[in-house]
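Open question from group meeting: does this chain pack into something compact, or does most of it stay loose? Before anyone orders reagents, we agreed to write out a predicted structure and look at it together. Recording both the input and the output here so the notebook holds the full record.
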Amino acid sequence: MKAASMLAALAAAAISVTATPALAWPDKEVTLTVNYGAGGNTDVASRELARAMEADLGRAVVVFNRPGALGTIGPGYVAKQQADGYNVGVVTLSSIAIMPHLMTIPYAARDFDFVAAYGRYRYGVVVRADSPYKSVADLVAAGKQGPGIFFGAPSAPNNLALFDLGRARARSSSRCRTSRAAKPCRPC
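Structure tokens returned:
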């Protein structure tokens, strides 16, 4: 009898939920705040995401670039917006996992509900096709000799990861350079 009463109560609750009209969302455009500038990897991937969201939602999804402070301006902006689903944002690994260790930021991972993941960038080490370096071992050997090797990365947090890799792998008197004209930094 107790079980039957419980089932009846659950059935009544289910009927009342389905009988209540749901609010239509979205009933206006949605803003997708991107934490890097127009034309970069994150922006291009975010614009593709916005295009797919528009197809699914039947509403415009406006990409709003909020670059600056190594990718932390955008998430800081989103964290201050009303939690109504009309301003969603892109946060990258560096803006959530790396930057809090390097600078004071106006948000924390707990300030967000992570509702989806998209994109998986593949990073690699490349050299010019006519380079004498044909393997990572060749690069490490070159880094241990002479003035070191030149490298570049798409953003500051990625540069930090490469510096750490250099420190972990080279542990010698080799020096890191961030540009051809830059003075050598401290030993890796």
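Observations to bring back to the group:
Confidence is low (pLDDT under 50) at residues 3-20, 172-188.
The chain has two domains: 30-111, 125-188.
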